[in-house]
């Protein structure tokens, strides 16, 4: 569903002492169009948007769409050079491709440079290091972090106590716990409460997002040093076998159609015992308006395979297309939307912050019972800056062809999950297709 918010604020003259300073006042005719994902962070910005419009003297048309549709609209406009959007929500996995194509403006070179006033207002080094590094391509920064997440295990602590279970450290332990919590609650001989759920939907950013953590946990990689695909290695096959085993044996029959909304909704309604998904979605579980299981939950680091824990990483930023006709107003918007002042106001309603000063604050810890797990998963130490580089958190290669690669991997995961192919055959076939993609792109010349 398309939601459009257009608040017209007519201001003239200087605004005096405010967030933007005198240099950010525009003509009353200035209007920017912002395309964002339907997400908790977006909803919070939408609530505060009239304040930005009043202070900045800019009219904002905010277009909010589901993740996949937003990306389709974004890519169509950027490919065509259509100046319809002044700000877009930027998937960090797309930064390499967009930057290489010249579709986005490099922020430091375009807007900051030696401007000390802008630099002070931005306070750029308060962003978590992973957020900034993830939005760079060839050392150029193409976006400011709007939300950041890892993954965590969310489980029914009350059922663990009832069935005398321990928090799982490995995938095998999680599998055994989940099997025990496949329950027949109405005694009709059929399972109606499931032990586990996660994203099973074939789409980039859905089943592959969760499986990336499995791959990493078994020591697998997407490519070798020569950009040859190796995700079909023994580690990759074991990772996919475990993913398929958990979902086929412990999740609802319809899990192949689940994105993050569907898997979380099943958990929120008290129909499953475990879910692995984004750390920020723990806020839904603690929301009395969304959750039927509030106060019954535990949170833990994602289990490990043979090599390490399987927590994953994801990041979205706000960037400015090179085709924007109101670039300075667009930049003022993204500085405002990602500021520590705005993020502090979000604490009570979401857990998606990107600034170290906010996510490691006492207020954040007091609000969210999973804050320590979230900080550990993201590599954040309280009262300290980010100490783990992005390469240690994400297992997604940063390259212009990533979307094409991920489509092949997502299809392979789906084929294995529904039994169309064995995990090994599915990954072998995907690796062949990815080799063709990389060959065409010139990686082997």
Secondary-structure map with pairings?
Layout: E1 3-7, E2 31-37, H1 40-56, E3 59-65, H2 67-80, E4 87-91, H3 95-101, H4 107-112, H5 116-122, H6 129-134, E5 136-137, E6 140-141, E7 144-156, H7 157-162, H8 171-180, H9 207-217, H10 234-250, H11 260-268, E8 274-278, H12 282-285, E9 297-300, E10 313-319, H13 327-337, H14 340-346, H15 356-359, H16 362-367, H17 371-378, H18 390-393, H19 402-417, H20 423-440
Parallel strand pairs: 2-3, 2-4
Antiparallel strand pairs: 1-3, 4-10, 5-6, 7-8, 7-9, 7-10
Helix pairs in contact: 8-10, 9-10, 19-20
Question: In brief, what are we looking at here?
Answer:
The chain has 20 helices and 10 strands. The chain has helices at 40-56, 67-80, 95-101, 107-112, 116-122, 129-134, 157-162, 171-180, 207-217, 234-250, 260-268, 282-285, 327-337, 340-346, 356-359, 362-367, 371-378, 390-393, 402-417, 423-440, and strands at residues 3-7, 31-37, 59-65, 87-91, 136-137, 140-141, 144-156, 274-278, 297-300, 313-319.
Structural class: alpha+beta
Number of continuous helical runs: 20
Question: What low-confidence regions span 5 or more consecutive residues with pLDDT below 50?
Answer: 1-18, 381-391
What number of domains?
A: 2
**Oligomerization state of this entry?**
single chain
What is the CATH class of the largest domain? Alpha Beta
- CATH topology title of the largest domain: D-Maltodextrin-Binding Protein, domain 2
């Amino acid at each position: 569903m398309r939601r459009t918010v257009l608040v017209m604020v007519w201001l003239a003259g200087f605004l005096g002492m405010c967030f933007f300073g005198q240099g950010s006042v525009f003509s009353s005719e200035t209007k920017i169009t912002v395309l964002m994902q339907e997400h908790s962070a977006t909803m919070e910005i939408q609530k505060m948007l009239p304040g930005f419009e009043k202070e900045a003297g800019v009219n904002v048309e905010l277009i909010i769409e589901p993740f996949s549709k937003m990306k389709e609209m974004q890519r169509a406009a950027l490919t065509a050079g259509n100046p319809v959007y002044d700000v877009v929500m930027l998937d960090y996995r797309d930064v390499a491709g967009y930057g290489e194509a010249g579709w986005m403006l490099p922020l430091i070179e375009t807007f900051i440079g030696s401007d000390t006033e802008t630099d002070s207002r931005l306070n750029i080094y308060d962003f978590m290091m992973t957020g900034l590094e993830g939005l760079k391509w060839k050392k150029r920064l193409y976006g400011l972090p709007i939300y950041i997440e890892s993954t965590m295990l969310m489980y029914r602590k009350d059922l663990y106590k009832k069935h005398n279970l321990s928090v799982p450290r490995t995938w095998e332990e999680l599998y055994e716990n989940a099997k025990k919590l496949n329950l027949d609650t109405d005694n009709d001989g059929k399972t109606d409460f499931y032990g586990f759920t996660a994203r099973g939907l074939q789409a980039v950013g859905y089943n592959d997002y969760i499986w990336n953590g499995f791959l990493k946990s078994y020591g697998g990689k997407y490519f070798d040093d020569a950009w040859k695909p190796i995700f079909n290695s023994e580690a990759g096959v074991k990772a996919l076998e475990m993913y398929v085993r958990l979902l086929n044996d412990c999740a609802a029959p319809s899990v192949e159609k689940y994105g993050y909304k569907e898997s979380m909704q099943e958990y929120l309604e008290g129909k499953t015992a475990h879910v692995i998904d984004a750390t920020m979605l723990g806020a839904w579980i603690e929301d009395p308006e969304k959750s039927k299981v509030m106060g019954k939950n535990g949170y833990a680091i994602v289990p490990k395979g043979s090599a390490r824990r399987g927590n994953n990483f994801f990041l979205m930023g706000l960037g400015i297309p090179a085709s924007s006709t109101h670039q300075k107003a667009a930049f003022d918007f993204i500085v405002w939307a990602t500021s520590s002042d705005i993020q502090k106001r979000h604490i009570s309603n979401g857990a998606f912050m990107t600034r170290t000063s906010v996510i490691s604050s006492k207020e954040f810890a007091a609000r969210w019972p999973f804050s320590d797990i979230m900080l550990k998963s993201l590599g954040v130490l309280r009262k300290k800056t980010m100490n783990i580089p992005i390469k240690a958190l994400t297992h997604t290669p940063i390259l212009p062809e990533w979307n094409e690669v991920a489509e092949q991997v997502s299809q392979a995961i789906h084929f294995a999950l529904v039994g169309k192919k064995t995990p090994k055959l599915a990954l072998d076939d995907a690796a062949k297709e990815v080799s063709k993609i990389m060959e065409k792109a010139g990686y082997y010349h």
